[in-house]
Amino acid sequence: MNDPTNIKPLTALRFFAAMWVVVFHFWPNLVGEAAGLPDVVSRGYLGVELFFVLSGFILCHVYLPAMEKGTFSYKGFLWARIARVYPLHIATLVGVGVMALSAIAAGFSIDPHILSWPSLPANLLMVHAWGFAPVAGWNHPSWSISAEWFAYLSFPLFATAALALKSKPWVAAAGAAALLTGLYLVFPMLSGFPLTQATIAWGALRIVPCFALGCAAYLVWKSDPITRPRVALGLSGLIVALIAAMAALRAHDALIVLSFGALIVSLASLTSTGSRFGTSRLAVWLGEISYAVYMVCIPWKLLFVNAAGKIFGLGDQMPLWLWLVFLVGVVPVAAAAHHLVERPARNILRNWAARPKAAQPRLA
């Protein structure tokens, strides 16, 4: 098969996953009859699951060949992951803290959980979705980055399992599907809420079945099940329509998340079969800023909703025109965060790690 390094349709998919989450969070701020929650929007929390499945697929695509050859560096892998997620995580945490302190200084009341000082150490160490944070404070969406960090640390276990099942991709897919379905059915019986609603509590567990599904999807893709671009494109459209239909029919979360694995395989097959669908500069750029879109959505919401309330005398709900400004505005804010913080900091950290040891300053 044509095995591209950069699977651009999957990069583009990241933006749609991020915006699905954003619309889910922003919709309650739309005033009037239009504020009734559509079925697809109501399942927007599953955009996080889509990110998790994508993460398992992409990390296997990038690192599994090195593990198979024995050239994988766990230290280098973790440093690359830190460089990828940590700078923006800290920047948004500080941004929320500054906004909250400014609001208090100006005499406004804020949710006391936002500035949860007991939760700060866990947030700084990215373990706040591991049960170490007493409340959901600071930049709440970062719980999923904590879950990702858990998956990064345990990646060799996922990779070892994937390599063991390399010649049996459909067995891997069936096993991942069984793990996901079993956890989704059993977890609510033990906890009282669905696993797909876990954040600070059990967030680290939430990524496990999705990450495993992504690893299995990678093995299926590598087995070359789709060899024609038209088939890949048609199947991708069919799966998207199926996801929308399942949301409308209020299907179980497990069915929708399992379909993410199939969607990722079909979109990846677009590239491996030579299709250029989903490879435009705009689509890829939007995918590149998707992490920033996700991380700035709540800080942007806090800032915009409060500013709109002051300027227009509104509560926390807005007319459609203003809500659309609110929604679209998250993209330039995210772009600024990506180009001014995320990408430069990532490059600095990666370049620092790549310097010869003799050139690096000694630490006392």
In words, what does this structure look like?
This protein is mainly α and 364 residues long. The protein has one domain (8-350). Helix content is 70%, strand content 0%. The chain is built from 14 helices and no strands. It has helices at residues 8-26, 39-42, 47-69, 74-105, 120-124, 143-153, 155-164, 169-191, 203-222, 229-248, 253-272, 281-288, 290-312, 320-354. Helix 3 packs across helix 11 and helix 9 (203-222) runs parallel beside helix 11.
Number of E-state strands: 0
Query: Which geometry do the CA atoms define?
Result: globular
| Number of spatially distinct domains | 1
The helix/strand order is HHHHHHHHHHHHHH
Helix content: 55-70%
Number of helices: 14
How would a textbook summarize the main sheet? Answer: none
Averaged pLDDT, please? 91
Point out poorly predicted stretches: 358-364
> Hey, roughly how much beta strand do the residues contain?
under 5%
Structural Rg: 21 Å
Distance between the termini: 51 Å
What structural class do the secondary elements suggest? mainly alpha
